[in-house]
């Protein structure tokens, strides 16, 4: 990864790429046309663009622009430098788009742009100050925002028959696939695909009890390519084959 803080000049030449770290682009002068994750914005003085990690983005400036760019260090750096601000900062870095700076933040950006940011100490301390300032000024809902687990559960159940990937769920949460995977693991203690598997099998269990569908048909409905694969998954999850589950469940309900 390059230096944490750099001054960059942009021209009419289009820059399009992605990188494995998050990035903040602060406008100093001119106008930079920016697009990230399909969302367009303009970076001018007192604004910044948020580029989450691994998100493809493109930018160009028809008349030229000058920006301060913060290439965000890894998560352990954020935790060690930002303390209680780290969680909120990570929430900010998850979602692409443009943000408006307040007056003190704009002054800090201007001061750093005029400072010797090639000095590692100044660059690291300046980056930490900028990130902490953004976190402290974030709305309360951004600080406490959690994953929409109910919506994710409903989405999996509606789409259980088709192939599902982490990226499908990440889009629903407005996050990159990598960031979504990490957040999901932190909040639920399981991976997104374990969640998908459990929801499919729970739905299969409900269909065994509440419908007369053949087991092979139920397997297809919950995303399994064959009855044998569905049977093996049900045995691992519930300790019973689908036929045994259907018989036991119906015995309990007297049907």
UniProtKB/TrEMBL annotation:
Pfam families in alphabetical order: HTH_18
Signal sequence range: none
Annotated organism of origin: Pseudomonas kuykendallii
GO molecular function annotation: DNA-binding transcription factor activity; sequence-specific DNA binding
PROSITE patterns: HTH_ARAC_FAMILY_2
Assigned keywords, A-Z: DNA-binding, Transcription, Transcription regulation
Name the UniProt record assigns to this protein: Transcriptional regulator, AraC family
Segments forming domain HTH araC/xylS-type: 150-248
Functional description taken from the UniProt entry: Regulatory protein of the TOL plasmid xyl operons. XylS activates the xylXYZLTEGFJQKIH operon required for the degradation of toluene, m-xylene and p-xylene.
SUPFAM superfamilies associated with the record: Homeodomain-like (SSF46689), RmlC-like cupins (SSF51182)
InterPro entries reported for this sequence: AraC_XylS_family_regulators, Homeodomain-like_sf, HTH_AraC, RmlC-like_jellyroll, RmlC_Cupin_sf
Presence of the UniProt keyword Transcription in the record: yes
